[in-house]
Amino acid sequence: MPFDILGKALVDYFEGHYDQDIITHSSLEEEDVLPLPYLFRNFKDMPLIEQRALEICYGNILDIGCGSGSHSLWLQEIGLNVTALDSSKGAIEVCQKRGLETTVLSEILEFKQNGYDTLLLLMNGIGIVGQLQKLKDFLNHLKSLMKPNGQILLDSSDIIYMFEIDENDGGHWVPRNVDYYGEVEFQMEYKGEKGPIFDWLYLDYSTLNEYAARCGFKTELLVQGEHYDYLAKLTLT
User: Fold this and answer.
1) What is the pTM for the complete model shown?
2) pLDDT for 120-173, tens place per residue?
3) What is the CATH number of the domain that holds 120?
4) Can you give the residue range of the structural domain that contains 103?
5) What whole-number distance in Å separates Cα of residue 186 and Cα of residue 190?
6) 175 pLDDT band (50/70/90 cuts)?
7) CA-based angle 66:87:95, to the nearest 5?
8) Which strands make up the sheet holding 81-86, listed edge to edge?
9) How many domains does the chain have?
10) What is the per-residue pLDDT across 6-54, written as a single tens digit (0 to 9) for each?
11) Backbone angles phi, psi at 97, to 5 degrees
12) 8 A C-beta contact, residue 46 and residue 66
């Protein structure tokens, strides 16, 4: 089994053993830091996109890629029925210790329970798709989990700004070895140990709208952030 980088870090922080953050390596930049305290933030410290998403959740909610459970906890505290799902064993352990009543340890594509009013994918939650070619199947799977009048709330970022502009035609220089410029390879490192390399998807709103329509969804842009990020709502047409 690959080392559960995220889970190990979350457990350490929760148990009071915080002395290092997660280091991320990606195909976009050599190294960055993911501060562990940020993963345990409360509602008032969340960005506007996350606050807005949480405020419009309703009914039976599935928090996909819940991490430490901060979003689920807020929803539970205001009286909503929320299930926190993550593929990290350590993350689910922390969620349970923080008081979440309903948790599931599973990959989302292996999760089959349906009947949800709100599917929540925050902190660039749609990124777990990994590659654009997998987006259609992913959205169809989400469709199978939700009620006909349900909603999907997700955020992402358009990272085209990270690529140089061609002075001749105004276009952007993007890598030739990827099918879509928002496909990025990531690797997490914690306390000197590295996890497996995995694919992550940053999805611009126009492309999301196009693929969602193919799957029978109507897409609505709810919030545009200050850093090319956005919050979108998908409902069935």
Assistant:
1) 0.92
2) 999 999 999 999 999 999 999 999 999 999 999 999 999 987 755 655 554 444
3) 3.40.50.150
4) 5-236
5) 13
6) low
7) 45
8) 103-105, 81-86, 60-64, 116-121, 146-157, 229-236, 217-224
9) 1
10) 999 999 999 999 999 999 999 987 799 999 999 999 999 999 999 999 9
11) -70, -25
12) no
d(CA 207, CA 188): 27
- DSSP per-residue string spanning the chain: ----HHHHHHHHHHTT----PEEEEESS-S-EEE-GGGGG--GGGS-HHHHHHHHT--SEEEEET-TTSHHHHHHHHTT-EEEEEES-HHHHHHHHHTT-S-EEES-GGG-----EEEEEETTTGGGGG-SGGGHHHHHHHHHHHEEEEEEEEEEEE-GGGGSPBPTTTS-B---TTSSSTTEEEEEEEETTEE---EEEE---HHHHHHHHHHTTEEEEEEEE-TTSEEEEEEEE-
Residue of 176 and 83 predicted with greater confidence: 83
Q: Give residue-wise pLDDT tens across range 107-133.
A: 999 999 999 999 999 999 999 999 999
